[in-house]
Amino acid sequence: MSRAAVRVLRLGAVPYAEALRVQERCVAAARAARGPAALAGPGAARGGPAGPPGLPAESVVLSEPAQPVYTWGLRGAPGAAAAAALRARGAALVAARRGGHITFHGPGQLLAFPVLDLRRRRLPLRAYVAGLEALVLRLCRRLGLGTARALPPPFTGVWMGDSKLCAIGVHCGNHITSHGLALNCCTDLTWFDHIVPCGLEGKGVTSLSHELGQHVAVSHVLEPFLDSFQEVFDCTLVSSEGPGD
Length: 245
Hints:
Blueprint: E1 4-14, H1 16-32, E2 58-65, E3 69-72, H2 80-88, E4 92-95, E5 103-105, E6 109-115, H3 118-121, H4 125-143, E7 158-160, E8 163-173, E9 176-184, E10 204-205, H5 208-212, H6 218-233, E11 235-240
Parallel strand pairs: 1-2, 1-11, 3-4, 8-10
Antiparallel strand pairs: 2-6, 3-5, 6-9, 7-8, 8-9
Helix pairs in contact: 4-6
């Protein structure tokens, strides 16, 4: 059987809101690719774009946040005073449709938003989250970080000791995924000092650069990341210039 094709959109350094906008277009395209029955979900009345013919229905959106931003999911929204303090440090604040508490996104971090159809893949949500962890663990091994690990539930993400290297927070609507993971490559980790990352008291945050003792830019990990993605999700990646091409 031929492997499923997944479209790769490399946005580069863009505002977090732009990555979200591209992601939502990909979600609409994935939903539309199922046919009229799938368009009963949110956004159907607006006639979400099905995408150009011949392009894969599934996608992965890769970006690096161009400016610092704090985001939170279903829980952990900051209070008014805390939000004002974070804004005073020069960061934006965004509520995101994903699981998880407050975290930080910014320059030096790889954001990966896979838009996959779990129903077609016959993949339970928990197994999908485990797949995201597995692909980052493969990437870490490729980079020489053999001690990276995933922790048992309820913890998610990839860890070096008690410090989180990669955070995971996903949304799944009508079996189509969005959001995904944030991998600290050369992130300024001091931004995490002003929050309790992911709501986990007593845990730290780390980066590839810190663990490897050398500067590791987002651009340096893209290819090994995509190699790991193909292996874990058993797909063929197809490059795309943009969300509408």
